[in-house]
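Run log, item B.
One chain of 170 residues. Sequence copied directly from the ordering sheet:
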Amino acid sequence: MKNILFYAVLTGICWGMYGDSLARARGALQSPFKPYLMIGVAYLVWAILGGAVGMMVRGESFTFTGPGVRWGFIAGTLGAWGALTLTMAMVSGGARQPHIVMATVFGSAVTVAALVAWFQAQHASPGLWFGIGLILVGVVVTSYYTPHKVPPAPKAQASVPLANTLPGMQ
């Protein structure tokens, strides 16, 4: 159990910093899709290296089955689509408030995971529905109280006397 929580917390730390990193990349590259392309490169590099090293350390074979390949591809597709839709959320105004986007993403991810488990099991205690309600409240409260940078005020333009702008009044 100790390792499960350790790796789950590490995942939360990485994904918790994901939105801010995405917003920074978008600003530095002046494009919402250049960072998405780099996300794809990073996924490719780390997935291949991490998967291969992990398999070698565990002494696993490099033999793959049809259902395993299919479900692995589905999982990868869902991850990539999640990154794309997160990019779209940032493009649609979320870059100004990434803390709201990320709280919504992770609150909804926990809820969907619970609903998928409920659908597969076909039963749930009232605690599940109470927990989902708490997630909704948590997303709203967290989003509202998360500190964020205030955008700089627009620079005031120097006032020009009206007489200097009208012809013949100089």
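Observations after the first pass:
- The mean pLDDT is 84.
- Helices lie at 2-16, 18-29, 33-58, 66-91, 98-121, 126-145.
Flagged for discussion on Thursday.
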